[in-house]
Amino acid sequence: MKPSSPAILFYDGDCGLCNRAVHVLLRQDRGERLYFAPIQGVTAQECLPIALRSTLSTVVYQRPNSDGTVTTWTRSEALLCALIDLQGSLRWPATISRWLPISWRDAVYNWIARNRHHWGKRQVCAVPSPSERMRFLP
């Protein structure tokens, strides 16, 4: 059962590299804190403004705060904050990476995003387990 306000990572559902990154995050998320939704899907339409949904090369991370508000990050900041929130082994490199200027991080992110379809040719995807499947939102 999905929580009323989960932390959600929105990604390009048609991108092989993006799908592999989601599976890395699933393995890191032993506490099942994070949910995933394609940026082209229904959940994104309900949760994100059109400006964020129209740029498929941008990953978006939304996390509810204790006061009921939602914080939204994009690009490198989204990935790093999600990794830190998961409390997995990659949180330390992510924390250190946040010390770099965001302009540098986003320059690298944008370069990868421009080339993601060349590196991440869509292949047969691994079938998620039933518990993992519950964490994918439409």
From TrEMBL:
InterPro entries in the record? DCC1-like (IPR007263), DCC_oxidoreductase (IPR052927)
Query: Which is a Pfam family this sequence falls into?
Result: DCC1-like
Q: Which domain of life is it from?
A: Bacteria
| Record protein name field | DCC1-like thiol-disulfide oxidoreductase family protein
Source species, please? Thalassobacterium sedimentorum
